[in-house]
Amino acid sequence: MPSHLLPVKPPHVPAQTDPRHEQDTDDTDTRLRFAGLTLVHAALRRDLRRLPDALRLLQPGDETQGQALQRHWDFLTAMLTCHHEQQDTRLWPLLRRFAPELRLLLNWLEDDHHNLDHSFTRVTTLVRIATRDAGSTWPVAYAIEDLAARLETHLRIEERQLLPRMAKVFAETSRVGTLPELLDLLRAANGPGTADAMTWLLDGVDEWTIQRLLADCDDTTARHWPHWRATYERCTNPLWGPSTD
After folding, report:
1. Would you identify the CATH topology of the domain 25-192?
2. Average per-residue pLDDT for the chain
3. From CA 99, how far away is CA 176, in angstroms rounded?
């Protein structure tokens, strides 16, 4: 029989694997799907972990570094405020309607948002003092670490009790909780700009995840991303050194 008539097995194509294959796939997909929430959580954890050390290293008379740390803290608190407003005015009402069994938890989370906002306001006053007086940096650094521990409890409750339920309540095509929705809400609220928000949110995120998230954003955001990231790194490297990721 001519060789060209013999049955030929289809070529073997190696399966493309997620470079983070050790993570649970469902959990990863949920975090990417609701990146408008999970990225804020990760960024808050990251900065509340490294800001205390940066404060402790602040040298007397270093006004430039002190002002840079103050600006970064102010940006962090602005993002936190927008995050809480997004949840309280946009997300929680939807969940109360479509997942009424969560109402008591949502009420507690909303009340805790107000408590956290007050705590951050108090620490903001301390940070302003510390960035002008290097002699007070250590006590303020401890105050930030205490605040980070307080916030961690809140974030874990949202991630462990709400995210799985949200994945069942909202359709996969829904924009609720997505990164594009967060960027739209920031624009509508005159919050931090897209460039600043994107670079802050994606600081330290692996390249595979960044590309997946950029694919969901508008073309302008994706096109300007390399320039935004380079500018952000140039501005923040003096605070805690170049990224090692």
Report:
1. Four Helix Bundle (Hemerythrin (Met), subunit A) (1.20.120)
2. 90
3. 14
